[in-house]
Amino acid sequence: MKRGDLILVDACVIIEAHRTGTWTALHKGFALETVETCIVEAQTGKANRINQQILDSDLRKCFQNIYAVTELERAMHAANFDGEMPALDAGELDLWIHALQRNDVWFLCGPDRASMKFGCQAGQKDKLVSLEQALSRLNIGAANLKAHYQERWLSDVKVKFTLGLH
After folding, report:
1. Most exposed among 42, 50, 118, 150, judged by the fewest C-beta atoms under 10 Å?
2. CATH number of 6-162
3. Domain locations in the chain?
4. Percentage of the chain lying above the pLDDT 70 cut
5. Which residue stretches of the chain are H helix?
6. What whole-number distance in Å separates Cα of residue 161 and Cα of residue 145?
7. Degrees to nearest 5, angle at CA 6 with 49 and 40
8. Cβ-contact 137, 148 below 8 angstroms
9. What's the whole-model pTM score?
10. Contact at 8 Å (CB) between 27 and 140?
11. How confident is the model at residue 47 (pLDDT cuts 50, 70, 90)?
């Protein structure tokens, strides 16, 4: 991954980057994309806990594209999924549905263990990146990132899923 690459981000990454003051660098350093569901999630729930309102109009300007996953796309994904559907929240599920339809080069940044497990099971382990890794590519230190946004956490999770330990 290098500066300017395409990164798909979930709501948690948006919130954590705002909390740590790294959002501007992140969206200026990479081509960020997401889905509508993640935009909504970033402005509700956990977003209220950072004591900083993330304005919809300001947030939307930071993305190269914001995709609206359709009910048909969700149904097609469910029909094609072999076995039980993963326990992902709505934003993560929509982000994966969108990501798996892409034919270009992309990375996905999201700190949820279930999302990372799904990515590994879907054969996308090498496309999973931590917020810390993305920021380090921009020469930005992020010492105050919560543990599950750090590279060590993601590496441990990927190894455990690869070895079938989770």
Report:
1. 50
2. 3.40.50
3. 6-162
4. 89
5. 11-20, 23-29, 36-42, 56-60, 71-80, 90-99, 113-121, 131-137, 151-162
6. 23
7. 30
8. no
9. 0.90
10. no
11. very low
Enter the tokens of residue 69.
């996953």
Grouping H, G, I as helix, E, B as strand and the rest as coil, residue 149 is helix
Report the Cα 142 to chain-centroid distance in Å.
Answer: 17
Query: Which backbone phi and psi does 149 adopt, to 5 degrees?
Result: -105, 0
Task: State the residue for tokens 């990454």.
Answer: 13
What distance separates the 2 farthest-apart alpha carbons in the chain?
Answer: 43
The Cα-based distances of 1 to 5, 9, 57 in angstroms read 6, 14, 28
Report how far apart, in Å, the C-alpha atoms of 111 and of each of 21, 59, 147 are. 18, 20, 9
Averaged pLDDT of the chain: 87
